[in-house]
Specification:
Radius of gyration of chain B: 19 Å
Shape of chain B: globular
Largest sheet of chain A: 7 strands, mixed
Order of helices and strands of chain B: EHEHEEEHHHHHHEEEEEEEEEHEHHH
Radius of gyration of chain A: 28 Å
Helix content of chain A: 25-40%
Largest sheet of chain B: 5 strands, antiparallel
Low-confidence stretches of chain B: none
Structural class of chain B: alpha+beta
Oligomer: heterodimer
Number of helices of chain B: 12
Strand content of chain B: 25-35%
Structural class of chain A: alpha+beta
Mean pLDDT of chain B: 93
């Protein structure tokens, strides 16, 4: 039976392989034919990343038996270029995806391209609806869906006309005039990402590599009484089974508080279902999986704490020795009682937000390998490489310098790849077995194990004068940080400091209780606590406006933060407060699209059961760590012998476009075209510490680091050349990628050679320290910059079923300066789509500590079919200290969407939702109730 | 352990039935496998020894008129059904239902045979087939026979087909006659599990201004799909007008038993949606019957 052959054609090449039991086509392609362009995002037929064509039809290769492909023609991403009009060029679809910025993290792109290719084969001129239908189940979590749609149309046009792909015309360059910065620049990694050549961690394979799996408790609260690994160790093919007592170094890890056991030992506490109790390395993943089942455990169950309010009850079971309170966070400004006494109207309401999962399409993967010199190498797509190095070293009990983190492409992160259990587990197994070890999470494990967005309960109480001026702003927040701290303290601090919204209130009091529970841990996630508080505040502002009989924009404008405002933490905003400008621009666009009364309910002509209306919300979000944390980044810029400038920093690229940002900044400073700049990221041996990729800080902090380093290198090259050619430095210029010295012209490789010959390394290294910030409670500058945003959203509500659709979305964002407009477009589209998902679809369900949303099929993100028309507006209110005026954009774009959607629903049908995601059943119920009440 | 040991591509019904009968361990027929493979991968179905793939069998891939019936082979990919002019003409509800199954990639693999054999009480294709009065052709080594669609259901996810001994060959749907039309509708919930809250298929025969005959099938309205008999009875032989329809729809509450399911919908919401879907689908089918009568 095993000698049976499968004969098939892959990308035009005849292939004959032995049939293997239980093998899917994706395994055959990836593991045996090493065609790793086909990606596995979920392995459950949900995400579409694994799409390949079989006899011309797109199918999901993760659930297509390899044996079924016998005799068939299979086309994968690696074969796509050969399908275009010119077989030695990229296919027009690939070309268009690059030019339109549809490629971000790149992980889903092979699936998007294959599905699109199949569409164009059948339909050479698809409209938006055709494209949405074809790509319905091919998910992109970076969610540049509008760019994907435009790319497909541009490619189709090119294929119909035979003309080259026409570049996008609707992406404006930055208002700030520069040679490189602010101009459209395709990503440096776009070509490998559209051809399937891009390598993510799971695409790497080492000789003799073992496969690891983790035994997880799967009970939310217990004491581990006994663990027996004997039978697992005896299973043939198992190389190692490790438990807590096998850890040579530190037993816990954690980004701020080291409260997270790497492996829970006998007699120790299980605090969440994802807690690891043993790790296995075996010759194959199947054997490792089998071994897990042979590990015997005995748990003594303990009561479960399942929500943060319960956790704060005096009689609640204690999850950590220190109690259940991770932190009580306080914001105080003015005199709250006085503020309420002065109010003509007092409004109070409580809001709820759920746990969210990042659902990045690339599941976590780490490969650890001991080098012959005895150093531990870890290949991983991580947001904080230097922390990984530190934690791996601590667990192994070796010096940091003996660990080398080699960052790989990251298939989406959104804050979810900051915590690092997997890296440590892989390293422990490689340490013991002396063989390379790959630890890949499947989707289920990813959903269970990594930290989520904090679920919150937020009570808002606002006092206002009759004219709308705020007199008092009180909030009380409960945040569910789950079993371990992760970044919970920081996240909930941000939620609290942003909990009176982008408004100036004279009297503020905010109290937040960040509580431990037995739920999966919560940590960083795009928006970092502010998504939650914005939902509460922006809903409350609309409710207040109604009670005051005011227009929701007028109320916001009256109280908006502006230059000269003092925030609730006592920070005087001197510069770069673009909120009012965002508001003006959105208002103008709204009046153009919807006339003078956008917030009124309208009936859809011919469909009396459908109602539409617009809703609005505002947001702000800090750039950088702030709160007194030293915020710095190191960068190297070196002129290589081939004349290329290499920028090196360990910051991470999650798809957001950082390499382009750094490339443009370096090109600008050096006076060379961007193609002469190469960016190397995330390698703890080769690149200096860029700090964590979090808090929308990279463009500002690492951007500044690269800017000053590039300037330093240019100065060094200038003075060296001036001296060598005996001219004044004024006569040395860099233009068009060449050095002009008086009347002579030198190539950059010649410049490198000259410096080397003179004993100078053409290299500059600097560390940039961001302006100092103050801790919460001390007043002064808690943050060195804030981004601002206004979104307006049009919804359609079906009054018969309660179903809600988002039709149009205007997103105005003050980003300081648009350094990378193409990447910015992707961030704006993707951020809004994530917001639409948060509003309508996303809820990570946990019941009594047990994860119900343990499959992608049970955690729905907004697909392309839910994509509204997105109208981006870029506002550039420069920060004097930012690179070219820029501040962060990664998070702000997601924050206002959910409240804008629920405000729009209220405007359409009069139903106020104080929790997300929108429950259509509740919407219908309340519509009926309102009808009954008349 | 592997999900399966042997994967057999069958090229005739006989060969498939033999392979199932002779397998040295548990054996299952498989078509597109979009449900079965997931169940195997996620441990909801124990690993099997043999999978017998029915998709290469020519007879199971036919989509054609057979006398007074439309025949849809059990292994025809649902995408092909959505593009079929014959299905459009004779069983529009089936086409509409198939167009809503999964996404495009899934529809290239998934089959109506699998949809019915999997016996989920809200499977879109099956609900539509039931409203069309379709019969399933079942083959065993001994015989071929026709069975009403609804008789194939024993419980949620449990088919009356004898595992390993019987396979579905295809579905026979009575050819559409003058005045007949059908429609399908469903409502999903965008969060949580990817199953419909409710779906509804309607077939009716129109005689001038009367509903001469009607079938309404609603899922998930119990462990097995059900016809809304009381609603049908109230409409049968009656004129199509809002008062009659409203009266008939009110019988949903006594005709069908909905239950509340966590993460999906309360029974009350299902009744409301059922009401909406029946109105929508009956109205659609009624209009279509008129248009189609003129042809």
């Amino acid at each position: 039976m095993n000698s049976k052959k499968i004969e098939l054609t892959v990308n035009g090449v005849a292939v004959s392989v032995d049939e293997r039991p239980g093998e899917m086509l994706s395994d055959l392609l990836r593991e045996r034919l090493r065609l790793t362009g086909t990606k596995i995002g979920c392995n459950e037929s949900e995400c579409g990343s694994c799409t390949v064509l079989v006899d011309g039809d797109p199918i999901l290769s993760c659930s297509y038996p390899a044996a079924k492909a016998r005799g068939k023609q299979v086309l994968t991403i690696e074969g796509l270029a050969g399908q275009g009009p010119q077989s030695n060029h990229l296919h027009p679809l690939q070309e268009a995806f690059i030019q339109y910025g549809a490629v971000q993290c790149g992980f889903c792109i092979p699936g998007q391209l294959m599905t699109s290719f199949a569409l164009l084969q059948r339909n050479p001129d698809p409209n938006d609806d055709d494209i949405k239908e074809a790509l319905k189940d091919t998910l992109c979590r970076c969610a540049g869906y509008p760019s994907i749609i435009q790319s497909i149309k541009a490619a189709a046009r090119s294929m119909r006309t035979g003309e080259p792909v026409q570049p996008p015309t609707d992406i404006p360059p930055s208002q700030t005039r520069h040679r490189s910065v602010g101009r459209i620049q395709p990503r440096p990694d776009a070509i490998p990402k559209v051809t399937g050549k891009a390598i993510y961690t799971d695409d790497i394979c080492f000789e003799g590599m073992l496969h690891a799996r983790v035994k997880r408790a799967m009970v939310p609260s217990a004491i581990l009484r006994k663990i027996d690994t004997q039978r697992a160790k005896e299973l043939p093919g198992v190389a190692a089974v490790l438990t807590a007592e096998d850890i040579p170094g530190a037993h816990t890890h954690g980004l701020v508080v080291r409260d997270w056991p790497t492996l829970v030992g006998v007699g120790e506490r299980i605090r969440t279902v994802g807690d690891a109790v043993a790790i296995v390395a075996a010759e194959t993943r199947e054997i490792a999986t089998q071994a897990l089942e042979l590990i015997e455990t005995v748990y003594e169950p303990l009561p479960v704490v399942s929500d943060p309010v319960q956790a704060r009850q005096p009689d609640a079971p204690c999850i950590h020795p220190s109690g259940n309170l991770l932190k009580h966070i306080k914001v105080r400004k003015g005199d709250l009682d006085k503020g309420f006494a002065e109010a003509d109207l007092i409004f109070e309401h409580t809001f709820y937000t759920p746990i969210h999962d990042h659902a990045f399409l690339e599941p976590e993967c780490s490969i650890a390998r001991l080098t012959p010199e005895g150093r531990m190498e870890v290949y991983v797509g991580s947001q904080i490489p230097y922390d990984d190095r530190n934690e791996v070293a601590r667990a192994l009990g070796i010096p940091e310098q003996q660990v080398h983190i080699i960052g790989q492409l990251i298939g989406g992160g959104f804050g979810g790849k900051e915590d690092i259990a997997g890296q440590i587990h892989a390293a422990l197994l490689a340490w013991v077995t002396k063989r390379p070890v790959k630890l890949l999470y499947d989707r289920q494990e990813s959903l269970i194990a990594h930290p989520k967005r904090h679920a919150t309960q937020i009570r808002v109480k606002i006092g206002a004068k009759r004219d709308g001026r705020l007199t008092a702003f009180e909030t009380e927040l409960y945040g569910d940080t789950g079993a371990y701290a992760s970044l919970g303290d920081k996240v909930m601090t941000r939620a609290t400091t942003h909990s009176s919204g982008p408004y100036e209130a004279p009297n503020v009091k905010a109290d937040c209780y960040a509580m431990y529970t037995n739920n999966p841990p919560a940590g960083a996630f795009r928006g970092f606590g502010v998504v939650q508080s914005a939902f509460a505040v922006e809903s409350a502002m609309d409710m207040l406006a109604e009670q005051l009989g005011m227009d929701p924009i007028a109320l916001r404008r009256l109280n908006a933060l502006r230059e000269g405002s003092v925030t609730n933490t006592g920070q005087l905003l001197e510069h770069s407060v673009g909120l009012l400008e965002c508001m003006e621009k959105v208002e103008a666009e709204l009046s153009r699209l919807a006339g003078p009364h956008p917030f009124r309910s309208r009936m859809v002509p011919g469909q009396p059961h459908l109602r539409t209306a617009w809703g609005i919300a505002a947001a702000y979000k800090n750039t950088g760590l702030g709160g007194g944390a030293p915020d710095k980044a190191g960068a190297d810029v070196e002129l290589l012998p081939d004349g290329i400038f290499e920028v090196r920093t360990s910051s991470a690229e999650l798809g957001q476009g950082l390499p382009t940002v750094l490339q443009l900044i370096a090109a600008e400073e050096l006076g060379v075209p961007p193609r002469m700049v190469h960016v190397l990221l995330s390698d703890t041996d080769l690149t200096p510490d860029g700090g964590p990729t979090t808090a929308s800080r990279q463009t500002y902090v690492t951007g500044n680091a690269v800017r000053q380093t590039a300037a330093a290198l240019k100065e060094m090259l200038t003075s060296e050349l001036a001296e060598r050619f005996d001219v004044s430095p004024d006569y040395v210029r860099f233009e068009e990628g060449l050095a002009q010295i008086d009347s002579q012209t030198l190539t950059m490789s010649k410049v490198a050679e000259l410096l080397k010959a003179g004993g100078r390394q053409p290299l500059a290294s600097t560390v940039y320290w961001a302006p100092e910030t103050k801790p919460l409670g001390e007043g002064g500058d808690m943050h060195f910059a804030f981004s601002f945003a206004i979104q307006a959203v049009e919804v359609e509500v079906n009054t018969l079923t309660g179903e809600v659709r988002v039709l149009r979305l205007i997103s105005a964002n003050d980003v300081g300066a648009a350094i990378n407009p193409l990447g910015l477009r992707g961030q704006v589209e993707g951020g809004a789509m994530m917001g639409v998902g948060h509003a309508l679809t996303e809820r990570f369900i946990v019941e009594e500590g047990r994860v119900i949303s343990d499959r992608l099929a049970r955690y729905r993100m907004a697909p392309i079919t839910m994509t509204p028309q997105i109208i981006p507006i870029v506002v550039e209110s420069p920060v004097p200290t930012g690179p070219y005026g820029a501040k962060g954009v990664g998070e702000i774009v997601t924050i206002p969407t959910a409240p804008a959607v629920t405000n729009a629903i209220y405007n359409a049908v009069g139903v106020r939702l104080d929790r997300i995601p929108v429950d259509q059943e509740l919407v219908l119920k309340q519509i009926k109730e309102r009808e009954r009440m008349g | 352990m592997s999900l399966w040991s042997t994967y057999i591509l069958a090229y005739s019904i006989e060969e498939a039935l033999q392979a199932l009968a002779c397998a040295p361990g548990p054996a299952r027929p498989i078509a597109g496998g979009t449900d079965l493979l997931l169940d195997l991968q996620q441990g909801n179905h124990p690993p099997v020894h043999t999978l017998v793939d029915l998709t290469p069998i020519p007879e199971l891939n036919r989509l054609e008129m057979r006398g007074d019936c439309l025949f849809i082979g059990a292994s025809v990919p649902v995408r092909e059904i959505t593009q079929s002019r014959l299905v459009h003409e004779h069983a529009l509800a089936v086409l509409e239902a198939c167009a809503l199954i999964g996404g495009p990639q899934v529809r290239n693999s998934a089959t109506l045979g699998g949809n019915v054999a999997h016996a989920l009480p809200a499977a879109d294709g099956m609900i539509a087939l039931a409203a069309m009065g379709a019969e399933a052709e079942v083959a065993s080594l001994e015989q071929r026979e026709l069975r009403p669609i609804l008789s194939l259901f024993k419980g949620p996810g449990i088919s009356t087909l004898e595992a390993g001994r019987e396979i579905l060959v295809g579905f026979q749907i009575p050819a559409r006659r003058a005045g007949e039309a059908s429609a399908f509708g469903r409502v999903m919930r965008p969060q949580g599990v990817a199953l419909p809250i409710i779906n509804t298929a309607v077939w009716l025969r129109r005689q001038r201004e009367l509903i001469a005959d009607i079938r309404i099938v609603v899922g998930p309205s119990g462990p097995v799909p059900q016809r809304a008999c009381e609603v049908e009875n109230a409409l049968r032989g009656r004129p199509f007008d809002p008062v009659e329809l409203a009266h008939a729809r009110s019988l949903v509450y006594t005709s069908l038993r909905f239950r509340s399911s966590a993460q999906r919908a309360s029974a009350e919401y299902r009744y409301q949606l059922c009401d909406v879907l029946i109105e929508e689908c009956v109205g659609k089918a009624w209009k279509r019957a008129e248009v189609m009568e003129l042809v």
